[in-house]
Specification:
With 323 residues, this protein is of the alpha/beta class. It contains 7 helices and 18 strands. Helix 1 packs across helix 5.
């Protein structure tokens, strides 16, 4: 591991990244010392940057100097701002054909009756509305291992990875049209996910996002069980009924067994985990390498948070296989 106090991402960069807190006088480049304290993960200039001049990191423009910046100075929002510049989108000019691995990787997965492959074997609890989120959480919590007593509700079902509640904060007095369609499409995607062996949807009863409409619209009537708090007679009875459903399907879920399957069955979604100053030099490149590995073995990787590409669209379009 390098002992250098800073990270240089590209020889043409006008800034480097502090590995740890740098005190004034700390070396940050050839003949350049920190002129002030630089917080860990922050940028420090290694060349003079004039007012209005672009600041480069990864050899890409990340902003423009809002005041003259001397070598060794901290570069942050106090002296770096946004600005327009010409981006060459050049669709496809850097696209390269995928070179697939000669020997494809495998993993131990669950093969579902419809042929799809799962990486986990969960029982899922979905909610049609925010009002049933608490109930869903209570049902899922009833099947978690108790950390203090060691009580393990699923000890007799070793092939069941757990009971998972996926909740959200809408579905009640929401607008119809696209917002409702998006919510239902998302819930239907969860309901069909191969990592769920069985699914139940819990609602309140009076929400805009009616469970029956969701099931009919996405043809889920044979896939999942459902109930709502008002029809069941309140929170306690719905929790009890939800727990009874889980107990009812545990044996069937436990019948699943892992088997060796090709890595081409993998579909991996990436989303921002809460970026800090090091994400761009550690986690993000590591996930890029991992993504390339999955693709070379025939799998699929999806960048699911498109806002993460803001400002770098022209880099993606150059590598895209089509406009």
């Amino acid at each position: 591991m390098s002992s250098a106090p800073v990270i240089q991402l590209h020889p043409n960069d006008s800034v480097v990244i502090a590995r740890a807190s740098l005190l004034p006088g700390a070396p940050v480049g050839e003949g350049v010392a920190a002129a002030e304290r630089i917080p860990p993960g922050h940028k420090v200039a290694v060349v003079p940057i004039a007012l209005g001049e672009p600041v480069r990191r990864y050899n890409q423009i990340i902003g423009f100097a809002t005041q003259p910046i001397a070598p060794g100075q901290h570069v942050h929002v106090h002296n770096l701002g946004m600005g327009d510049f010409v981006k060459d989108y050049a669709f496809g000019v850097d696209a390269k054909p995928t070179v697939y691995a000669d020997e494809r990787a495998t993993f131990e997965g669950y093969r579902r009756p419809d042929g799809r492959i799962a990486t986990r074997n969960y029982i899922g609890i979905l909610t049609s509305v925010n009002c049933s989120a608490h109930v869903a959480g209570l049902v899922a919590d009833a099947f978690k291992r108790h950390p203090f007593t060691g009580f393990e509700p699923l000890q007799d079902f070793p092939n069941v990875d757990g009971v998972v509640a996926l909740t959200h904060k809408t579905g009640c007095g929401m607008a119809g049209g696209e917002p409702l369609q998006l919510l239902r499409r998302t819930l239907a995607g969860y309901a069909r996910h191969p990592n769920f062996s069985h699914v139940i949807v819990l609602g309140l009863g009076c929400e805009v996002n009616q469970i029956g409409d969701l099931l009919r619209e996405h043809k889920l009537t044979d896939r999942i069980r459902n109930m709502d708090i008002q029809s069941m007679g309140g929170t306690r009875k719905t929790v009890e009924a939800g727990m009874a459903f889980v107990r009812e399907v545990l044996a069937d879920a436990n019948a699943a067994r892992r088997e060796t399957v090709p890595a081409s069955e993998l579909k991996v979604a990436l989303q921002c985990g809460g970026s800090d100053g090091y994400s761009g030099v550690s986690a993000n490149p590591a996930l890029g390498v991992a993504s390339d590995f999955v693709v070379r073995h025939g799998g699929t990787v999806i960048l699911s948070e498109t806002t993460e590409t803001y400002g770098a669209e022209h880099l993606f379009t150059r590598r895209a296989v089509s406009a």
